[in-house]
Design a protein that fits this description.
By secondary structure, this protein is an all-alpha fold. The protein folds into two domains: 1-185, Growth Hormone, Chain: A, CATH 1.20.1250; 206-404, MFS general substrate transporter like domains (Growth Hormone, Chain: A), CATH 1.20.1250. It has 16 helices and no strands. The longest helix has 52 residues, at 251-302. The radius of gyration is 21 Å and the shape is globular. The two termini are 30 Å apart.
Length: 404
């Protein structure tokens, strides 16, 4: 693949992830209205169904991430990416007309399976990146996804004022446009030299983990992925509740703070990481990020000044270099014919955190805001700080046994 084709393909992947994130985030503001319109009931009932949808999506990602990754190792990144985009476009079209809650649930199951876009895209990036560039390029992947996720709710909210169904139509059009663009310009990166036969026994999270864990350090690094994601999910899981309980913020201020965090995270993953890793090395960057996250989580747990919290919110994104750095380290330890399997397994590992962390974090918040208990709405962040200590211990333990 020549340099021009490589750059064009890389740009397409970034656009794909940006539009994919925007499509997902577009529908967030109107999901309560859609659920109530098809199922009736109260806003609380709609929230319960929303939780069921999120868990269903995460469970499907956990179960099928390695399957999709193994398929991309066998048949190529291009057909898997294009098929995923086609299924997503069709699902958004169905969502725009769905009239029953059970159809919405089925679509979430399908979306969870089809949302291989990010895992397959990162495998594509691994295919076309030099070893020393992988962590930085994975950072751009995270940045593109993050910017889309920041802009999506803003646009979705504006479209939702027109009609609760309008964001689904817009998301479907974005997916369709991206499918057409990909069909025209996306090359294939899986050649016969690195193509791996599809094996059903490895095309599931348990079989994939057994195969991947035989490679140096992968078990510990995947453990860190689960731990870090579990801690990080405290932000989306309890931020709106925490800031209302502690600082009496309204929805507008909550949205502003999350937008600032998302933009800062995109800057860190897309640009600052390209300076940090050459200066500190991947191991040094991870130790720094874990330590920084430990400090921020501890501060948030006990902070009582809303102005300081607002200032701290974008600064806390400095620790967001963890995910692309871990991806880069793992990718360099895996043969070229297992890149899809690895990225699918990483998606499964992150899904484990997405399934369980919101349940734990919200329960901790409930416990420490209940009568008779010490009032500490930041307690979930204290749990996250403890998990950062565990990440440091697991990582430095790995460094004592092997070179990074």
């Amino acid at each position: 693949m020549d340099q021009k084709t490589r750059r064009r393909a890389f740009l397409f992947i970034l656009i794909t992830l940006f539009l994919d994130a925007m499509g997902i985030a577009l529908i967030i503001p109107v999901m309560p209205d859609l659920i109530q319109s098809v199922n009736g009931g109260t806003l609380g009932n709609a929230a319960i169904w929303g939780g069921i949808f999120t868990t269903s999506f995460a469970v499907m990602q956990f179960l099928f991430g390695p399957t999709i990754g193994a398929l991309s190792d066998r048949f190529g990144r291009r057909p898997v990416l294009l098929l995923s985009l086609a299924v997503m476009a069709l699902n958004y079209a169905v969502l725009s007309t769905a009239q029953t809650i059970w159809l919405l649930l089925i679509i979430q199951f399908v979306n969870g399976i089809a949302s291989a876009t990010q895992a397959t895209a990162t495998a594509f990036i691994a295919d076309i990146s030099k070893p020393e560039e992988k962590s930085q390029n994975f950072g751009l992947v995270g940045a593109a996804f993050g910017v889309g996720f920041v802009l999506g709710p803003v646009i979705g909210g504006l479209l939702g004022d027109v009609s609760p169904r309008a964001p689904f139509i817009a998301a479907g059009l974005l997916a369709t446009a991206n499918l057409i663009l990909g069909t025209l310009i996306l090359p294939e990166t899986v050649t016969d030299a690195i193509r791996r036969p599809f094996e059903a026994r490895r095309a599931n999270p348990f079989g994939a983990f057994k195969a991947i864990s035989k490679l140096p350090d992968l078990t510990r690094l995947l453990t860190i992925v689960v731990l870090y994601e579990f801690a990080f999910i405290a932000y989306p899981a309890i931020w709106a509740y925490f800031t209302r309980a502690r600082f009496d913020w309204d929805a507008g201020l909550v949205g502003l703070s999350l937008g600032a965090f998302g933009i800062a995270m995109a800057i860190m993953q897309g640009f600052v990481i390209r300076w940090i890793i050459p200066k500190m090395g991947e191991a040094g960057a991870l130790v720094f990020a874990f330590s920084f996250n430990l400090m921020v989580f501890t501060m948030l747990a006990f902070l009582t000044n809303g102005t300081l919290a607002l200032i701290l919110t974008p600064l806390s994104a400095v620790g967001a270099i963890v995910t692309p750095t871990l991806q880069g380290m793992m990718s360099k330890r895996v043969p070229d014919n297992q890149q899809g399997e690895l990225q699918g397994l990483i998606a499964s590992a992150r899904s484990i955190a997405l399934i369980f962390s919101p349940l734990v974090m919200t329960q901790v918040f409930w416990l420490f805001t209940s009568p008779g208990m010490p009032f500490l709405p930041g307690a979930p962040f204290l749990l996250s700080a403890t998990i950062m200590v565990a990440c440091l211990l697991v990582f430095t333990g790995r460094r004592r046994h092997t070179a990074t």
